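Supplementary Note 3. Input sequence used for the single-chain structure prediction.
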Amino acid sequence: MGNRTLSDLNQVVALGGGHGLGRVMSALSFLGPRLTGIVTTTDNGGSTGRIRRSEGGIAWGDTRNCLNQLITEPSIASTMFEYRFTGNGELSGHNLGNLMLKALDNLSVRPLEAINLIRSLLKVDAMLIPMSEQPVDLVAIDQEGHEVHGELNVDRLTAVPQSLQLSLPVSATLEAIQAIDRAELVIIGPGSFYTSLMPILLVNELAQALRRSTAPMVYVGNLGRELSPAAASLALEDKLAIMSQYVGRTWIDAAVIGPDITAGHIGERLIVREPLSASDIPYRHDRHLLHDALEHTLLALDNRYLKTPA
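The predicted structure, written as discrete structure tokens, is reproduced below.
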């Protein structure tokens, strides 16, 4: 098993939402259809939130963001997909990509097929799968035991919530379960901990798939401080412990973090600490540096260098 490279893998699965998942997928886009992103669908802010309030449906914003980052051939289609309306009218602030995906949804195309149609239009080879094709919201139970509904409100929490749940039980997208079952490497992060990463782990069938998987599991940490006060208060060891609690086992084998991040007490997990920052935006991951760090992580995991000082 030793000395595999990322190019040797038949199925890599990345979990998350928005900018972070898009960054990982663009770093690994050379894998083409062997790369699958499973996308959080609980966003209720911005253009996405407005569409959901008026039309219903799943949140499209994180999927659109990932697709934008995977476009390698600029075209009229990609320019349209990325276009955001300005001015003071009803369309102001709306992203045309969100509206295109929602229009396909309204035409009774299942959400995954809508994504596949847009992928074909934009010449994106990597797969993108919504965590569920049923509309759902994120709910937190705060320190006082009150329910806090929606990503926007959860991100405003100043104290770590007692627990997280979905507003109703939803089925995982079947193709997402199948992708995890076939995965030879699973990556989660970077991204907003409570609102980009955790919702996927709250879908029972996806948590079960991660629990039974024997693939190496890698967490990619954020480079900047989280905007959510509650999430910003969590150390790396806290995040790994919370994720393990919801999946039902200790499932992260390695953490890829920047050189300034403190690892803390994380047991026998592998820590890969390397420069990861993009030169133009320091809190964003550089695609090439992230690719190299993931390559080093796979090699180390394959060689079973799992013990690091706690």
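The longest strand covers residues 12-16. Confidence is low (pLDDT under 50) at residues 305-310.
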